[in-house]
Every structure is written in C-alpha cells, then in structure tokens.
Design brief:
Layout lengths: L5 E6 L3 H12 L4 E4 L6 H6 L1 H20 L13 H26 L2 E3 L3 E5 L2 E4 L5 E9 L3 E3 L26 E5 L3 H13 L2 E6 L10 H12 L3 E4 L3 E7 L2 E6 L4 E4 L1 E4 L3 E3 L32 E3 L10 H16 L13 E3 L5 E5 L2 H8 L2 E8 L2 H6 L5 E8 L5 E7 L3 H13 L4 H5 L29
Helix pairs in contact: 1-4, 1-7, 3-4, 3-5
Length: 460
C-alpha cells in the first residue's frame, strides 16, 4: 500500500502542467491536476491562441486593400467585432475541451479548484479543504499581467487578460509597453480600425531583439499607428465618457480603452512556498535547477513561474523533460540558449539565435549577411512594405549563430530555419541549399557577400 495518494500532483493546468501530467501518466504514474480557472492556461484561454486569431482578423484589412492591384473589385469591407469575439471564444472553448479530454484519456484526475502547498509532499484543495499526499509536486501556475507604472488612475486601464472581454472594438486605444504583448495588440487594434497609440518608455521596441529588426518594426508601425517612444505615463483620468492619459512631457492622449502591457509576474502569491522554505527570486520566480527541481527535492516547477524563458513551447518542453526525467527514467533538461521565436506583429518577426550585438560579444569576429527587398506581392498591390533578413555567422567556425527575419510569414519560415541552426548548420550548408523560387525565403540561401564591417579590426 503506497504512502501517497498520487505519484504526482500538478498545480496548474496550463501548457507546461498539462504536458507534464499527460506524459507522466503515460509512464504509469498516478497523476492529479488542479486548475482553479480553465484548463489550457494563458496560451489557450487568454493568450497566444485567441490573440493569433485576432492577428489573422486584422490582416484581412491589408488583403482586401491589396486585392485591387491584382484585378479584384472588392466592396468596402465592414468589420464586426461581435462576430470575431463570438467565434474566437467558441474556438477557445473547443480547445479547452480537447485539453480536458486528452488528460482524462491519459488517466489524469482533474480537480477544478485551487490547490496550495501544505508541506513538501502534501497539497490542500482550498474549496473543499481536502488534503492530498503526493510523492512529487509540480508547480506550473504560470504568471499574470501587472499594471505598471503605478501612477494615479492606473486602475482605469485594462490588461491582456481583460482585453479578451471587451464587448466592442474601441474607437481609440492607447497601448502601453514595448514587448511582445504590447506590440502584437497594438498591431491588432490598428489593423481592425481603432485609432491606436503605442507608448513605450524606451527608444526602441522589443528589448533584446536585433537592433535593425527593432528599427524596421518601428518604421512599419509609424505608418500604421501613432508610435510614441521615449515617453512615460504620468496619470490616467476619466474624461467625457472616456479616458485621458497624461505623459511625462505634458501631452495628453484621449482614448476609450488603455491597455497596459508592461510585464508579467509569476503566480506565487498564497501558494504556500514559504511553508516549505522555497524563496522566490527578485522577479518573484521559483528558482530551479536544470531539471526543474527546486531546493525541496520533492517539489518541481516549470513554465513562466520559473521565469526562465516565458514562452509556451518552452513550458511544454520543460514539462515533458520533467516527466521523462522523473517518471520515464530518461534524464532530460531543456537548453534555453537557442529558442526560435516569433512576434506576430504586422509585418511579423522570426528570430533564432543571437542578435548582432550578442553574436559579436559571444564570438568576436562574425560575418553579417543582409537582404532588404520589396516582396513580390507588393509589386502589384503597391503596398510600401519591405522585408529584412539577416544571417550572422561565426567567422572561425562558419556556423550560423543567428537568423533574423522581418516580413510576411516570418514565424513560419523561422521554424524551419530553427531546425538547421539548432543542428549547427554552417553558412556553407545554407549556400549549398537550392533555393525555392520565387519566394522571399530563398534570400536566406542566396546571400553571398557579407556586409563590410564598420567595427574595429579584431572586433567583427
């Protein structure tokens, strides 16, 4: 007779927790999963999936406009927010049902309530008071958006959670932030027809990305919205049935909605970590080792709550690696150094590996290959749009250490490129790959002459 009720108790039904639970159950573990809101987590319920559907909706505006250049006569299109919201929400519900079904099919018991840690091998269900003894506990509770900066009236703003609850398309919206979430939502609302302002305190959007990609995005966004860089929010007030934001330079922006997308923090409040001696770091995250184990041997954590790389595919990989290690007898850890990623702005961004600045710091001498061109589609549509690509090569080994794409379908392209870069492809490997013509992506294998370096000898 086991001393435990379950082999694994998972707190949190997001991408990482669901994957860990399902794989562990597949290895024969007795698994229970508690989720207090909806199974699927941020990505499925109020994150990347519904947001991507909104991105698609916004891009139809460009398609209708571009069609005329190809001989199509299209009546002036009309957009209905209610239809998009209804169909988007229905798809989210459908996906949630699939997540539930997959867990149940795997033999995981789902508990629809909040769970907290009582001791290293006990959790308590808050609503019922029931306690569960578990040999191992996995914390996969994710993170939540925060409203920053803390200025007067900030409570009048909404976050990326509430944005999915809007019953109508705001005529005017102010988006505050410079990361993925702010950039993507600003692009969505501008495309759907809202008078959109994007406010960011820095001089460039998307900190951590390659500077030339950041500049390309800013140039494109200035044609689509009011982009305010280097400015900060001072206060928000209710004014004439709407909202008014005052900036640090004294200017004011009137809006129907103000979306604050300036950061997220791990969901650790009230979780019971202090009872077992787990201290969070400065960002509020749970420290873990390469195998996602905390300082308490029986407790693990994956996903955004660890603040390692806050991306859904990373959480999924971490959850899978945890289950393989602990229940599958196949020790595995996730390499967070090389993560292909996309930003679904319009145009979108696809990245894998180092930025140019990061590559120079890591490798010293690098070769930089670039291509800027007008996409073929734009020659007839007349759209003023450019594609930018950059390939970074370590000069000593000829290995490709960074690829950056700004343009249509960059996210789709970078997934395939990410395979090659992860495998350690060299520039010679790229060069001997036959191009698929005519495509934009063929530029990645036809770049032959590196940009002449503007850096001191010995640096690049």
């Amino acid at each position: 007779m086991s001393a435990y009720d379950v082999d694994l108790f998972v707190i949190g039904g997001g991408s990482g927790g669901v994957r860990a639970a399902r794989i562990a159950a597949g290895y024969g573990a007795r698994v229970m999963l508690a989720e207090e809101y909806r199974v699927g987590g941020t990505c499925v319920i109020r994150g990347c999936v519904p947001k991507k559907l909104m991105v698609y909706a916004g891009r139809f505006a460009d398609e209708f406009e571009d069609a005329a250049g190809f001989g199509w006569s299209v009546e002036k299109p009309r957009f209905d927010w209610g239809t998009l919201k209804r169909r988007r929400d229905a798809e989210v519900t459908r996906l949630e049902g699939i997540y539930d079904a997959n867990l149940i099919r795997a033999g995981v018991e789902i508990v629809p309530e909040r769970a907290v840690i009582e001791d290293p091998q006990t959790v308590r269900l808050v609503k019922t008071g029931r306690t569960i003894r578990a040999e191992r506990i996995l914390v996969a509770v994710g993170a939540h958006p925060v409203k920053e900066p803390d200025v007067p009236g900030i409570e009048l703003a909404i976050t990326s959670n509430e944005v999915f609850e809007l019953e109508s398309l705001p005529e005017r919206i102010l988006v505050i932030g410079g990361g993925y979430i702010a950039v993507e939502f600003a692009g969505v609302f501008a495309a759907l027809g809202s008078n959109t302002t994007l406010l960011h305190r820095g001089d460039r959007l998307l900190r951590g990305f390659d500077d030339e990609v950041r500049d390309a995005l800013a140039e494109a966004y200035r044609h689509r919205m009011d982009l305010r860089l280097g400015r900060t929010l001072r206060r928000i007030e209710s004014r004439d049935g709407g909202l008014r934001a005052q900036l640090d330079d004294g200017t004011e922006i009137d809006a129907d909605q103000i979306l604050v997308a300036t950061g997220r923090r791990p969901n650790v409040a009230g979780l019971g970590l202090e009872r077992v001696g787990i201290e969070t770091d400065a960002a509020g995250a749970i420290p873990v080792d390469a195998y996602s184990q905390t300082r308490v041997p029986s407790i693990y954590a994956v996903g955004d709550v660890t603040n390692r790389a806050n991306l859904t595919p990373v959480a999924i990989r971490e959850g899978h690696a945890f289950a393989d290690t602990v229940f599958g007898g196949k020790p595995a850890c996730v390499d967070h150094r090389l993560i292909p990623t996309a930003v679904f702005s319009t145009p979108e961004i696809g990245v894998v590996g180092h930025s140019e600045a990061g590559a120079r710091e890591a490798y010293g001498q690098i070769d930089v290959y670039k291509a800027r061109f007008r996409p073929m589609k734009a020659t007839l549509s007349g759209r003023e749009e450019r594609i930018f690509m950059k390939v970074l090569v370590d000069r000593a080994s000829d290995r490709v250490v960074g690829v950056h794409i700004f343009g249509h379908d960059a996210g789709e392209v970078i997934q395939a490129v990410g395979i090659a870069v992860t495998m350690g492809a060299t520039k010679a490997d790229f060069d001997r790959t036959i191009a698929v013509h005519p495509t934009a992506a063929e530029e990645l294998v036809t770049m032959r002459v590196p940009e002449v370096t503007k850096h001191p000898v010995g640096v690049g």
